[in-house]
Design brief:
145 residues, alpha+beta, Aminopeptidase, 6-stranded mixed sheet
């Protein structure tokens, strides 16, 4: 799953040094993959996307990650993962999710109802700031596309 995440990140044109600098932060460990908060999209038995919610307690949680394999970008996988994560969060009592977004992914989240609420420092690249977004789940989670 870590390699899927790194391939997805590299899709945006980041060079090998940048991806290597992000490797530690983006490495998924067994403890990160709890079945009640991690969702994997598959196509023909192969993982093509992953999303994960934080282990926070309601009412505010975080979408910790959402990555789609480059072969599946543009085919609705990310939208379905996002909608599913929001629905699960809403059912668990969350009213809001925050998202530390890659700048290239910000338009994706904005198109699904998220709003920019600030910036947050990158966990991998000193001095780099990332868009901090939030999506209010309200009475229903964002719909699948």
């Amino acid at each position: 799953m870590t390699e899927l995440v790194l391939r997805s990140k590299a899709h945006w044109g980041y060079d090998a040094d940048f991806i290597e600098a992000c490797r530690e932060e983006l490495t998924l460990r067994p403890a990160d993959l709890t079945p009640d908060r991690v969702f994997v999209a598959e196509r023909s038995g192969n993982a093509v996307g992953i999303a994960a919610l934080s282990r926070d307690l309601p009412p505010t949680g975080a979408l910790n990650l959402l990555y789609v394999d480059p072969s599946a970008i543009g085919h609705g996988v990310g939208g379905r993962l996002f909608a599913h994560a929001c629905a699960i969060a809403r059912a668990a009592g969350f009213a809001r999710l925050t998202i530390d977004a890659d700048p290239h992914a910000e338009p994706f989240y904005l198109s699904r109802g998220a709003v920019r609420i600030g910036e947050t420092p990158s966990g991998s690249i000193p001095g780099r700031m990332l868009p901090l977004l939030a999506v209010d789940l309200g009475d229903r989670a964002p719909a699948e596309p």
